[in-house]
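can u pls check wat happens w/ guanosine-5'-triphosphate
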Amino acid sequence: MSRALVIIPTYNEIDNLASIIERVRASSAIDILVVDDGSPDGTGALADAIAQSTPRVFTLHRTVKAGLGPAYIAGFQWAFERDYEWVAEMDADGSHDPAVLATLVTIAEHSEAALVIGSRWVPGGTISGWSRVREAISRAGNGYARFALGSRIHDLTAGFRVIRTDALRTVNLSTISSSGYCFQIEVAHRIERTGEAVIEHPIVFREREAGVSKMHLGIVVEALWRITLWGLARIVSR
Ligand SMILES: Nc1nc2c(ncn2[C@@H]2O[C@H](COP(=O)(O)OP(=O)(O)OP(=O)(O)O)[C@@H](O)[C@H]2O)c(=O)[nH]1
Ligand SMILES: [Mg+2]
């Protein structure tokens, strides 16, 4: 069995899914788990059809759209039960280049790091296709989170990463309640706080290839108020 699993959460990604799976399989031997939240466009059924005819592709179905965080936590549990050594996260929409996944896994396997992040905000990293406003919001949000949490990570919200499973097991997932991008911040910072090494590898992040963004104001608001609360708690506990 492969020692690494990439979890791809999906909600209405029918025009992206087949191509993403194909491209992951073309560039690495990693297992693939699609976690679909009952997409009305039939993404879940397509994932099942692909899984039936394709080795090393698996599906997990959840009935309610509950956000990125709960989908990933369900995927992590699935990986724990099957003793994968590494779990990776990747979007289904083409923003993360599947060819780079193999690079991130290789870096993880040959380093001491518990977390390898495909990072937009380290030298060499960049975003292609976003408006200046969208880019400024992401940059400012990451800067604020880094400052408030006292983190050394530049791209805390990145959704393209590889995590060593034994380090992830030490993070108490049952107490994670963030659902949107904030989930990524929470997981990265919890791993960082265990003292484990974190590597940021520069990536090019591209605007989604097809379909509609699931980004909404509530996701930004959730991240802002949670980061602020964590930052205040840090000040109080000093
Ligand atoms: N299972 C599941 N997947 C989700 C959910 N929300 C988003 N996703 C998926 O998570 C991945 C990243 O989603 P986001 O980056 O939050 O949303 P997005 O639509 O890609 O937004 P952009 O940042 O504009 O690209 C994509 O593959 C989405 O299909 C959800 O509630 N449940
Ligand atoms: Mg996206």
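The radius of gyration is 17 Å.
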